[in-house]
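Good morning C.,

I know you're traveling, so I'll keep this short. The sequence:
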Amino acid sequence: MPEYSEARICDFLHREKEANNTVATNYIVERFQQDIARVYPDTKFLRARAAALVFTSAGVISKPTTTVSSDSDLVKAVNDAYSARALKSGEDKDRSKTIAEAFGYTADELKSLPEEANLGLSCGNPTAIAKLKEGERVLDLGSGGGIDIFLAASKVGSKGQAIGVDASAEMVALARKNASNLGLRPPQVAFVRASLEKELPIESSSIDCIISNCVINLLPLAGKASICKEVFRVLKPGGRIALSDLVAKKPLPEDIRGNLAAHVSGIGGAATEAEWRSFLGDAGFQELLLPDVLLFDRKSNLSVYWESDGSTPNSGCCAITPDVTLKPSDLPSDFDVNEWVATHLLGSYEVYAVKPPSDEPARTLETSLLRYWDAYPTVKSGPPPLTAEEVAELIRNPENGGDKVAIIDVRRNDHDGGHVKGSEQWAAQTFYDDLPGFFEKHKNTEKVIFYCQSSNGRGPRSAGWYQDHLDSQSSESHSSKAYVLQGGIEGWKAKYTGENDLVDYD
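The tokens, ready to paste straight into the viewer:
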């Protein structure tokens, strides 16, 4: 195979410098031109690819530098890049479709999904290799726009659960919007924001299968070790992982591993097969099969990012949409991306492992989410409290209360054990999904007062969701406001038990 000449790369970088004449771009180009001279021949292609990505990240990577200074800087750069990609969902549908099909998604699968669920960031199709069964619970690490979760949900059915975890708030918001368009909602389908290098908000021993698609390579080494331990913790005994990821066939040069743009593109963070075995073995997995299996014809493998329409590439399986153009004509005519990748550094791998069986009793859980509210947006507002005396006065004084007041019990199972007389029951666990109907019923109720057991959790959270919804509407569309009963039903019963006009039992 002919050498991808250093002069050709430098010429490309020089032209991009002229076309993108900013201080940050000039700095980056100069750094890369200096670095290329020191790079071994078999890393020149990755250098050019990483260089192209840096231009796309000028507004995302906050400092004009290409080096990874700390794990936190790396995590932030990755999060910022993918958040920016989420905000551009749907802008490049044809390319995203081409990439998805090249990595194993069928035309029927893609037709069944919202177009914005496919962001063209894959290096495999984990749902095709996971052998999911009806009723199983599946967890997707780095769920993006939701493509793999939606496919998984169709396989596990209404009795199963599909949970996507992503560090990007924008990605989670996009996935939730796509789920809503498909009529999917928690707990069957849930998207949660969480950092993958930290403890997952998932119950221990509650997941049948864990999938991931070209995401683990984006984590720092310590994060890779941590997520493998978390994967082991949350899997049921006998549970399995089926991951698609980029794996380094040999240790990457330090100037690639330490390159921020290379990490964001999914290159610099690719672990070796030995590192994967070490991470999974240390986590507790005993048997590991890590074959170098591609899910598609090698001739249309990673080159799909460069070739699909002859114009702007995605610059890697895990890259944001670029603002520069790198056409096939910028590459030697007989340069074969797949041959280079297969011969030298990277491969698209499937990673399988099974958690050993144990004698621990099976857990019966309604959901694998550690906290049900993680599946919903974080509350922004802080509705004010009303004391028990103030609420009692509203109930007893029809002039101030009556139709102007609604009292909402958000407890799910405790209403029969005593509640504020006249209160409505709306369970907190499903309240967010019920907000549109709740708003229509109470949009002209001046005071909507929420409570739970002690009004320290479910009550304020539900009140906050309602107030956030009110704040998103025009002021002319309602006259309602959310409040919280201070002390909850515990305080209410302690003060008013025996007073039949204030406490009731079903």
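Safe travels,
E.
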